[in-house]
Amino acid sequence: MSRPAPHSRRGAFAGAPSASASAVALPIADPVAESSAFAGMVRQIYQSLEADQVGAMLARHAADLLGAHGARVDFTNDGALSPVATFGDVPDAGDANRVSAPLSLNGKTIGEITVFAAPPREFTDDDAALLTDLANHGAVAVGNAWRFREASDSARHAHALATATRALAFSTTPESVYAAISLIAQNALGARWFGVLLAGPSGTRLEMAHTSGGKSDARWTAHECWAAAAANVAATGTPQYVPAIGTIVATLPAAVARAVRASSVRSMAMLPLPGDSAIHGVFLLWFDSAHRFDEGERRLFEDLSAQISVALHNAHLAAAERSGRERERALADAMHQTEKLAALGELVAGVAHELNNPLTGISMFAQLLLDESLDEDQRESVRMIKREADRAVGVIRDLLAFSRKTGPRMVAVDLNALVNQTLRLRAYSLQTAGVQVHPELDAALPAIPGDDRKLQQVLLNLIVNAEYAMHRQETRVLTVRTAWEDAPDGGRVLAEVTDTGTGMAPELVKHIFEPFFTTKPAGVGTGLGLSVSYGIVHAHGGTITVRSTPGAGSTFVLTLPIRAQQLPAPAPGPASSGRRRASAPVIRSEPGAAPVAASPSPSAPDSSRATRP
Q: Is 231 in contact with 206 (CB distance < 8 Å)?
């Protein structure tokens, strides 16, 4: 095909609109000017060090060079052509004439330039040759841009690794590691958010350990769905890159998929955190713009994830060592406290014996006075003396029973009587603290088999903790409720201890029964009360759980099986003194004082159980 006359070609260029102020107008009639304009185009192409910009300039110059309506540049990606840049009108197939030239570098096709023109414009062999010349220069410019990108990536890779090494080397706690990762992810990697999923105790379930950066929507969707999305990465140890987040939306539950679409996440990378013998987590990076994840970037991400894995492993080892030392100190403190309590118990027992004798004498002589001829005012005063002396004797008896050293035993336990006895032990402390006590005891509660001393220790721990939780609250109400749940296996009894204290956050509730875990300040609690109570209740075949709302208080629930066929004979003593004790009247020492259920003294007549005015 011969090259058309200069006039016809000039007419074709004249009919094309100016594509850009910087585009070179090519008067084809003058070969020298044509050569100069072509050289100018080539210089512009070589000046760019970004492959995408080279592609955009190639599309623009190709359209101007051939006087066409539009042009498109495609790069080869995994054996297929992918559009990189377009200029002007790029019609659908069949709507225009077109001419193409390959982008070849070192004998390998790396892309293609296609120029489009609407009929009656026809491309010639000279057009194809001219486009081929431009494509050859364009391929070299693209290769230069890629080599520059590789060199830049290598420098960035080395700088990011050096920065990460310095930041992570001085991180000895998981929190400091996460802070270092946040700086690395946002500054060195360009990620908007990051997250760390770690394998749970079973090693089969991933749990979100930390998220940081960006808006809350990314963190919410992370907790809801990223663990499932990353499960395959943890199982295979193979990184997964998601250039377009929509490709995984179809695999998510509908509600989560909607949340992901509404979030700002556009691309993500999921990288395994290798352990000594298995993958122990996944490192997530989220981006708020489309990300192609080229080979250099993938190498950088994977090298960093290996360093992060080592840093987290070392930080957890250091934390475990610190925790071990703290547990040793706490155990030593607890042993010291136990020794103090044992000494205090001996002291209480001695004092109680010394007080019990005179109180018994006061009660006996008050009873003798009641047989004398007294007027009504004197008789009421003597009744009050006897009533209070008997109450003091009852408190001393409870103290002696609680401090008495006994081995394990299984008796028929009246839980209502046990609650009443424990409340009497704490009556003065509760009254002094301004706590109102509301016992709600089921009078039909059956006896249960158990160790009454140990179960009383559980109740005492719960009541003491409830009292402490309310010491800064304006409203201080302690409610102790018992109930019976019947069932074919004998059923179970429930005891609930509810306070109006400060409550606990969910992350505290998860650890509340762990040994040495305490929310009290140093010197106030050892962190053993609830863990010991947990062991006692489970040894009885029961459960102990807690419901808590920050700022609204907590409720501890004891569930103990009845197992009537295994019920032993009732034990002597106040803890199991029969069904009559479940409905004992309530005594209020003063207005606003803590109400506690009274119990009869062995030496007191029934009249001593009257409610004090």
A: yes
Q: Are 281 and 199 in contact (CB under 8 A)?
A: yes
Has residue 525 got a pLDDT over 80?
no
For residue 51, the one-letter residue type is A
Mind listing the pLDDT tens digit for each residue in 452-480? 888 988 898 899 889 888 888 888 999 99
The CA distances from residue 579 to 391, 414, 444, 479, 606, in Å, are 20, 7, 8, 21, 16
DSSP-assigned states of every residue in 409-458:
--EEE-HHHHHHHHHHHTHHHHHHTT-EEEEE--TTPPPEEE-HHHHHHH
Specify the residue for token string 């009497």. 424
Strand, coil or helix: 192: coil
Give the number of other CB atoms < 10 A from CB of residue 450: 28
Complete DSSP assignment for 213-276: SS-HHHHHHIIIIIHHHTHHHHHH---EEESSTHHHHTTS-HHHHHHHHHSS--EEEEEEEE-S
Could you report how far apart the first and last alpha carbons of the chain are, in Å? 123
Q: What is the pLDDT of residue 468?
A: 87
Share of the chain above pLDDT 70, in %: 72
Pair 241, 289: CB distance under 8 Å: no
Residue 570 per-residue DSSP state: B
Residues 471 and 473: their CA atoms lie apart, in Å, by 6
- Longest Cα–Cα distance of the chain, Å, equals 148
Distances (CA, A) of 122 to 73, 132, 135, 608: 20, 17, 20, 120
Residue 516's pLDDT is: 63
> What pTM, to 2 d.p., does this model score?
0.39
Closest by CA position to 114, among listed 70, 82, 50: 70
Cis peptide before 574 (omega within 30 of 0): no
Average pLDDT, the chain: 75
